[in-house]
Design brief:
The structure is a homohexamer. Chain A is an alpha+beta fold. Chain A contains four helices and five strands, in the order βαβαβααββ. A five-stranded mixed beta sheet of chain A has the order 3-1-2-4-5. At the A-F interface, strand 1, strand 2 and strand 3 of A face strand 1, strand 2 and strand 3 of F.
Chain lengths: ~140, ~140, ~140, ~140, ~140, ~140
């Protein structure tokens, strides 16, 4: 019996979209107001989907408390109330677009999650803009 | 032309997570406050996804009124305002975790739904914790 | 400068509507499925509104972290994952309708909150049914 | 690195479900109140999902501003504040069920979207009834 | 003990904003796309707020089942899946703006609701546009 | 006939809570992670409530298109994708707490809105934390 379990979490962060290899004009042309030199920010909503086999004894796919704690320890502590460009080493040389943040989160969680589970991460930058990555 | 139709429904129920083969200490260690002897409860939100071919004459995959009634007759009448552990025979010997409730709902609907449709059931226990089962 | 600050929290609980002075028939006639002997439950969503004067030094009406902790200590620990009828002394002789739960929560918070603040409590039993009490 | 980007949009429209090859009685039996001669309407919520490879230079799968504009130009201007049956040529001979509206939207966007992207369209007719089409 | 109880309901309707005393040009200038000759429509979300004294025996302000039925009988049956301009006598000579629909609903409910209750009606035309009327 | 009209809008911004008259230690003790030197950010959701008399000819309290444009011109252009501390003159000497941002928005809109209308502004910093100011 294969099932998927979803857990939602959130974090609030500042960021700025910028490619250091480009001129100021190129950056403004591509990233528009998202290139604002002084940063802007979002309430990021995170959905973590874990897929696998249900344990007969517990009736759980995964203990959701442990999943919640994993997300808190590895993602919220790292990203919440941070400036993604300045405070988070993963974005030193990586533009913090929703796509790249989602990719970074997936990789962090993938390393910590038992290999028997499949993992998909969805990240809402706003209620109308969101991305999903599944490690393909 | 293959399409999916989704219908949402909800029910309010009490439950308690408990494995009768375990000691009191084991149950508390694994299920924590969800093991409370006197039960607690949830507003369960249910999403039923049906996939198949659109009918040319109606432009419907399935008459959503009939799907709504099926969910009402088979799921809401069985589970709404019930104690899942005490009032619902399916959980006599099955721990009513979100995973197992989702599995039970899928099986009930699968039996009643025309075999030409694929079926996926998503069950929200809270807005932040939910599960999905597709009969794999 | 008078302002209102709102903080949301939630708890999951089982309950049953019942008047011990009435017959079984009267209880069923008035409370219907909410009278189920074995209880049912809800995800209660709580909105606490505090009104008063903004502090010039902090720019805060109230430190929302302290409000969050107050709600956690006094309400969530008392009501979350509980059976309101059996586990919560306040409902020993008080029917746990949404109205009465809201009244009990307001009184608990009113006792702990600085008298300089006005207090309003809104309680969602479901997304479509909710109540509000302001101590009038 | 394959990823999916989602963008939400909405439009408000009137419609009526009706099969001109059927009698009045057949139409009423199948479509019920949705067959109302004078139309009724909805706030349609649209979710467009685009899947493909992330561009290394931008960190984008697709410029979401250009996706937002595409949806505005091709879908909102065509359908918003319209009577689907009377004002939209695509439904001259096609019953505007949620299934068929979703199919029409998918085809319009598919024509305009770079072939390197996969496309899925989800359409909410109400928060409880929605459909999804992926061009299979 | 004074309290407020809220109940949500919804209906789907077509409408058109139009003042018959004005020219075509005036109507288009003021109402824009809402003046579309062939109508458009909305999922109207209705919030009914009833205020009064809690009954000691039931712990209810009002039996929410009876409030739900009142809204169904008097509002949903009258407005759901209707063309407000053509099918609803109240809008024969009254422009169905959100303001006027809210006013009409308030008056219908006020006539049927026990005079001991205060009544406020909020009507969402879209999730971003809504109005409230309290009979002042 | 007195009525209230609500319009929602949103903006994404970075900010940092900080009192320049305090030491680093005092700022960290009071503002915690919200004091992060490099800023963090939010999706601010704004609800503007306007109260007054309905116009008989239009059936409008206020043309919601003009209210939408007013909010766009005066609030979104000023605050969206900005660093509130660095980019917005109003917060040069004012700590950008939710309370103070709400107060600033109210004052900007109050100046531009016809004096015949009453005005209330609600500002959501997150879905669980929000404030309301009405100019008292």
């Amino acid at each position: 019996m294969r099932i998927a379990v979803f857990r939602k979490a959130h974090f609030n962060a500042a960021h700025r979209l910028h490619n250091p290899d480009w001129t100021k004009e190129q950056n403004e042309a591509v990233f528009g107001i998202c290139n604002n030199y002084n940063y802007h920010g979002h309430n990021y909503e995170l959905e973590v989907k874990v897929t696998g086999e249900v344990d007969k004894d517990t009736g759980y796919l995964i203990d959701i408390k442990s999943l919640k704690e994993l997300i808190y320890e590895e993602i919220e502590l790292r990203l919440d109330h941070k400036n993604l460009n300045l405070d988070v080493p993963e974005f030193k040389n990586l533009n913090p677009t929703a796509e790249n943040i989602c990719y970074v989160i997936w990789n962090i969680l993938r390393d910590k999650l038992d290999a028997k589970y499949e993992l998909t991460v969805r990240l809402y930058e706003t209620p109308r803009n969101y991305v999903e990555y599944w490690g393909e």
